[in-house]
Amino acid sequence: MSAAAGAVGADAVRRGVVKVAAAQMCSTGKVAENMAAIRRLVARAVEAGASMLFLPECALFIGSSAAETKAAAVAIDGAEVAELATVAADAGLWLSVGGVHTRVADSEEGKVHNSHLVFDSFGMGSPLAVYHKAHLFDVDLPSGIQLHESRATEAGNKVVVVGETPVGGLGLGICYDMRFPGLFAAMRAAGADVVTAPSAFTVPTGEAHWHVLLRARAIESQCYMIAAAQVGKHNAKRESYGHTLIVDPWGKIVAEAADSVVEDIVVADIDLDYLDSVRASMPVFDHLRPELYQM
Ligand SMILES: O=C(O)CNC(=O)[C@H](CS)NC(=O)CCC(=O)C(=O)O
């Protein structure tokens, strides 16, 4: 075998095809019960042969007021986060936990971060990467839904792409972030192959926008999009749309959970050779004209 052929072979091994799982669940205000559900979902992902599992926003806790959310926030170096690291390590699985309310040390009002945590499968006890949700969901919708995420939460200020995961470069988003294409373009520019939008989407906005937004972000960024979702009634005030989704870089839905199933995983292959071929045949990032539309 020539040296050149050897190099191609090595690259193929690095890119390759990797199976992932995305969860759907209905978290409540009871952390211990949510943690038990996470353990069941992890076991199912292992059984399915996945290398990585993606859990939705609010996987550990979903509250019904800003006060509850602040009170339930965990320390990034605390017991709950360490437990998640151990769960991942014991299973030999990489884990994305899409939105954990974490304490902000210097917040005068006791506000939290909505943090997307990534754990590797080696069990170092702490997350490999942390992204703080940058766009906060402060809305007053015609359907009567009012949500003011900023009452409990401080926005993050950094784009985060984890370089070397089983699925290549992994861009971290959360829920409402999916409405901001600039964030996903920035992730692609920073090396993302897979982007994420773990969610607790409202039912009316989900019916109107969920599939369109997620497919559009995948098509534009030419990345796989993984959106693990909360589903069903969490408490008297909150209900989520479900439809956990995995979309390929051409915009095709490759896995979707039924909204009637309260606890489930869906699996799909992440094929980075296919991703490369999509990017090569339509090199949109070589055609950008930021001088025309940079804001
Ligand atoms: O409240 C928490 O504890 C965690 N945060 C959330 O669930 C957030 C803020 S209320 N939900 C969303 O961003 C939904 C976005 C959405 O539904 C849309 O963009 O249409």
UniProtKB/TrEMBL annotation:
Keywords: Hydrolase. Residues 18-272 form the CN hydrolase domain. Transmembrane segments: none annotated. One of its GO terms (molecular function) is hydrolase activity, acting on carbon-nitrogen (but not peptide) bonds, in linear amides. Gene3D superfamilies: Carbon-nitrogen hydrolase. CDD domains: nit. Signal peptide: none annotated. Pfam families: CN_hydrolase. PANTHER family: DEAMINATED GLUTATHIONE AMIDASE, NITRILASE-RELATED. This is Nitrilase. It comes from Thecamonas trahens ATCC 50062. The lineage of its organism: Eukaryota, Apusozoa, Apusomonadida, Apusomonadidae, Thecamonas.
